[in-house]
Amino acid sequence: MSFAEFGGPDVLQLVDAEEPHAGPGRIRIAVRAAGVNPVDWRVREGQVLGAHPVELPSGVGLDAAGVVDEVGEGVTGVEVGDRVFGEGADTYADFAVLGAWARMPEGLTFEEAAGYPSVVETALRVMREVGVRPGQTLLVSGASGGVGSAVLQIARERGVTVIGTAGAANQEYLRDLGAVATTYGEGWVERVRRLGEVHAALDLAGSGVIRELVELTGSPERVVSIADLGAPEFGVRFSGVAGSVPAALAEAVDLISRGKLHIPVEKSYSLAEAASAHIDSQAGHTRGRRVLVI
């Protein structure tokens, strides 16, 4: 799957491309499933994301799960035939090269595994950047998507209380993940105030709430956004540069294996349905993850 110009979902084209190969320090996998992330459609639209410079024509996708079929020079600890999940480039494809990977935990399907890499890395990163500590309360705006689902569970494991906002249909889902749930929309700030003091906040949906999050926390330094490119206008950090993906994958494997992290797959699509997956992802209201099955 690739695009030759920036634009809407219709610029995505299923094309025959030359197979990539695993260079030094990389592996190649036969892709079984690829994660659909908001960064995918943001890059496709041509949004300026410093961590993701794009040369056209460009492939699509960062996350994938599959079977190792090439091991690059200098790589140890993984063999052809291993089931892995991780992050690379152009993962909406039959074959993809990964720069970070881990063996899939027992019992995880390829579809499920493809939904974790970038999501867990992002969740760990923004929690670190916002500086929330055990015993404090974290407000998460747009809490029911992939990153929100991970934040809620990791926060619970770390002794952080979470207030999560989401649509009415996802209130029970947030509560099941350990959050104090409330709806967004008119009056949401007062509803949050009634739930108690907020020490830090994350904007995961980009729904124009930065000013209110600063108001609720008392300082722009206590707010981090991954979805609103205008956040710096309010003194709020926009977090778009990944940290250590191998470390995040290792923590994901640990949490999943101990039953402390589970992100459901809300919907699966075929590779030919990538445009539909982008439309649905951009519409929001996701519960968990969306993935492509290759």
UniProtKB/TrEMBL annotation:
<keyword id="KW-0963">Cytoplasm</keyword>
<dbReference type="InterPro" id="IPR051603">
    <property type="entry name" value="Zinc-ADH_QOR/CCCR"/>
</dbReference>
<feature type="domain" description="Enoyl reductase (ER)">
    <location>
        <begin position="7"/>
        <end position="292"/>
    </location>
</feature>
<comment type="subunit">
    <text>Homotetramer.</text>
</comment>
<dbReference type="InterPro" id="IPR013154">
    <property type="entry name" value="ADH-like_N"/>
</dbReference>
<dbReference type="InterPro" id="IPR036291">
    <property type="entry name" value="NAD(P)-bd_dom_sf"/>
</dbReference>
<dbReference type="Pfam" id="PF13602">
    <property type="entry name" value="ADH_zinc_N_2"/>
</dbReference>
<keyword id="KW-0521">NADP</keyword>
<dbReference type="InterPro" id="IPR002364">
    <property type="entry name" value="Quin_OxRdtase/zeta-crystal_CS"/>
</dbReference>
<dbReference type="Pfam" id="PF08240">
    <property type="entry name" value="ADH_N"/>
</dbReference>
<protein>
    <submittedName>
        <fullName>NADP-dependent oxidoreductase</fullName>
    </submittedName>
</protein>
<dbReference type="InterPro" id="IPR011032">
    <property type="entry name" value="GroES-like_sf"/>
</dbReference>
<keyword id="KW-0694">RNA-binding</keyword>
<dbReference type="InterPro" id="IPR020843">
    <property type="entry name" value="ER"/>
</dbReference>
